[in-house]
């Protein structure tokens, strides 16, 4: 098995996911050689491959790794230890490993983390089966369906949406340890959480066991509308793209630079006002940004304007139980068969936009536009599904 430094994060949070990914991945031995300095070494029956984004100097080595997040975490240290260890195993000396993101640039003191990194890798390389453990990676994981089927047989309380901490403990203290118990012992669940919450919890359990959506509260009327998704470059607090899907047509309002943010925002507001349609979005980010921008540019957006905004996430969370690890747009839309055309996500897109700012490479911008278009199309798909549930119910 060939493991690269960029796999360290996944191994750290969910070795099971890393195992799925590595089995599917086809890395040709010389895939990177023309582009990067590549070092390899063997450990615990695996091949460790260090791939860096930039070699700053070679004697001794100073290398740079690019990231997208806001802060440095322990897994970054382990990734740096992986790189340092692999390069030095090839007889070179590593002076510095720099990690850089749009939010930080730091020298990583990687040597103290080598022991922990090696123990993580030995656990990963020397085991063939890993348990399903709920982590934040489950939110967007493409293998969640498989994990759900597995946990549904044995446990799975962790995967009940909105049930954690003390609620989980309460269930367990009453002998409710798996999803079937939740259904069988409904009267206890109701006693513990009240009628409304218990109805949701039981619907969730059913949904996971039967692997299908379960409507637990009648849905409101779903009217036609447009779909909105904003892309922001958070280091500058800059909203550069307002993507709208209207009648199957994708309309991007793009700010070429910070100075044209106002114009892009005003054009979007104008468009929304002119259509007079409901504005569907996922989560409350769009509403929050609209309120901030209207304040920033002194543009009056009355309460009535926001009354046309409908959060599709809330429609799901309040009415439909789904067999998904989280109610993120990615999880829900994937469950209904939607495929994103790019490998971008909320974090990576920030890094991509930083690269676009640095290089003005239109291909990068094009990819971001596709990603944004897919987000609004995914929102449209999951709203369509809600409409289907709604008509089944009535
Ligand atoms: S769904 Fe969660 S537990 Fe399963 S492989 Fe993905 S990240 Fe791991």
From TrEMBL:
<dbReference type="InterPro" id="IPR012337">
    <property type="entry name" value="RNaseH-like_sf"/>
</dbReference>
<dbReference type="InterPro" id="IPR019993">
    <property type="entry name" value="RecB_nuclease_TM0106_put"/>
</dbReference>
<dbReference type="Pfam" id="PF13482">
    <property type="entry name" value="RNase_H_2"/>
</dbReference>
<feature type="domain" description="YprB ribonuclease H-like">
    <location>
        <begin position="226"/>
        <end position="386"/>
    </location>
</feature>
<protein>
    <recommendedName>
        <fullName>YprB ribonuclease H-like domain-containing protein</fullName>
    </recommendedName>
</protein>
<dbReference type="InterPro" id="IPR038720">
    <property type="entry name" value="YprB_RNase_H-like_dom"/>
</dbReference>
């Amino acid at each position: 098995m060939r493991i690269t430094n960029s796999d360290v994060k996944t191994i750290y949070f969910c070795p099971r996911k890393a195992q799925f990914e590595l089995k599917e991945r086809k890395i040709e031995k010389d895939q990177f050689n023309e582009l990067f300095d590549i070092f390899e070494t063997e450990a615990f029956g695996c091949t460790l491959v260090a791939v860096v984004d930039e070699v700053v100097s070679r004697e001794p080595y100073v290398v740079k790794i690019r990231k997208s997040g806001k802060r440095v975490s322990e897994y970054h240290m382990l990734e740096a230890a992986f790189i340092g260890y692999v390069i030095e195993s090839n007889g070179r000396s590593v002076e510095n490993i720099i990690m850089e993101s749009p939010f930080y640039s730091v020298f990583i003191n990687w040597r103290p983390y080598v022991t922990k990194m090696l123990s993580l890798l030995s656990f990963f390389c020397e085991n063939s089966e890993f348990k399903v453990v709920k982590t934040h990676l489950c939110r967007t994981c493409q293998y969640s369906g498989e994990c759900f089927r597995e946990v549904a047989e044995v446990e799975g309380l962790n995967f009940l949406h909105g049930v954690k901490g003390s609620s989980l403990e309460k269930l367990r203290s009453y002998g409710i340890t798996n999803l079937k118990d939740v259904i069988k012992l409904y009267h206890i669940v109701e006693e513990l959480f009240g009628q409304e919450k218990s109805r949701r919890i039981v619907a969730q359990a059913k949904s996971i066991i039967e692997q299908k959506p379960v409507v637990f509260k009648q849905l409101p009327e779903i009217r036609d509308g447009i779909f909105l998704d904003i892309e922001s470059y958070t280091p500058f607090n800059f909203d550069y793209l307002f993507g709208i899907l209207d009648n199957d047509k994708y309309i991007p309002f793009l700010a070429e630079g910070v100075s044209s943010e106002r114009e892009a925002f005003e054009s979007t507001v104008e468009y929304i006002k002119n259509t007079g349609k409901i504005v569907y979005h996922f989560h409350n980010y769009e509403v929050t940004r609209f309120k901030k921008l209207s304040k920033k540019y002194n543009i009056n957006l009355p309460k009535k304007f926001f009354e046309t905004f409908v959060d599709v996430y809330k429609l799901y969370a309040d009415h439909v139980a789904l067999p998904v690890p989280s109610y993120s747009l990615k999880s829900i839309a994937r469950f209904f068969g939607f495929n994103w055309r790019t490998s971008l996500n909320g974090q990576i897109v920030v890094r991509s936009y930083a690269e676009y700012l640095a290089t003005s490479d239109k291909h990068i911008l094009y990819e971001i536009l596709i990603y944004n278009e897919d987000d609004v199309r995914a929102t449209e798909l999951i709203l369509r599904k809600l409409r289907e549930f709604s008509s089944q119910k009535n």
